[in-house]
Design goal:
about 260 residues; alpha/beta; 8 helices; about 15% strand
Length: about 260
């Protein structure tokens, strides 16, 4: 229970990686503000699963593309749970197309949610963290924050930006008890990735097992997916006292993707 008494906000946490992170933080004793879209029953299930760790849990449906709603979510957190100690910027969206065909509205949406929302969240929580001289800001970037892939111009640009922002915040808080780091997942088995596997299988007339193998083999030498629980464990470590002098890093959890 190393995070007992701490308050965490995890954006994009009603499913997938975000929910895994939220549940891990709750297991370590943190109160958690969940955030994200989804069917009401799915959101209720996420709240139930996280509350099972016997910590206070709240939910905000704030749209991460809207700065005013981000600020509102953080104010709601203070009202419902207490002052924010841990901010995990996880919310993200994806769209793929060649640069010359990339829709401008999709570019704007991806930059707003995957990058600008990170800035707005950090900007809002940082003053109180600095006053208390303790805080953990963890940005879920991607291997695509360090390397590129075709047809992912907006996503790659945004995630590179997240890593740059992480480094700036780390430098600006270097003499304080506030740390800022990024985690860079490779392929993680989430419902969204499972759908990509199913789509690939249907498109190429493959078995699901072969589609899964092909997806992994292209990028991830381990030929195994990382899990949401493993990403959550990395977040929990970066929140610990052991990580107090880890600042401004981009930590890959990628099965060897970046070692190639």
């Amino acid at each position: 229970m190393m995070l007992k008494g701490r308050v965490a906000v995890v954006t994009g946490s009603t499913s997938g990686i975000g929910l895994g992170i939220a549940q891990t933080l709750a297991a370590h004793g943190a109160s958690v503000m969940l955030n994200g879209f989804g069917a009401p029953d799915a959101i209720a299930a996420a709240v139930r699963q996280t509350s099972a760790h016997r910590v206070p849990v709240a939910y905000s449906g704030a749209d991460m593309s809207k700065p005013d709603e981000i600020v509102g979510m953080l104010r709601q957190t203070e009202h419902d749970l207490g002052t924010v100690d841990i901010l995990v910027n996880n919310a993200g969206i994806q769209f793929t197309a060649p640069v010359q065909e990339f829709p401008v509205d999709r570019w704007d949406a991806i930059l707003a949610i995957n990058l600008s929302a990170v800035f707005h969240g950090i900007r809002s929580v940082l003053p109180a963290m600095q006053r208390r001289n303790w805080g953990r800001i963890i940005n879920i970037a991607s291997t695509h924050g360090l390397v590129a892939s075709v047809h992912k111009a907006a996503y790659v640009a945004a995630k590179h930006g997240v890593i740059g922002l992480t480094k700036v915040v780390a430098l600006e808080t270097a003499t304080t008890g506030v740390t800022c780091n990024a985690i860079c997942p490779g392929w993680v088995l989430t419902p969204l990735v499972s759908q990509q596997i199913d789509d690939l299988a249907a498109r190429e007339h493959l078995s699901v097992a072969e589609a899964r193998r092909r997806l992994l083999a292209e990028k991830q030498p381990s030929e195994e997916f990382a899990t949401a629980e493993q990403i959550g464990a990395a977040v929990a470590f970066l929140c610990s006292d052991a990580a107090a002098q880890i600042r401004g890093v981009a930590l890959p959890v990628d099965g060897g993707w970046l070692a190639q």
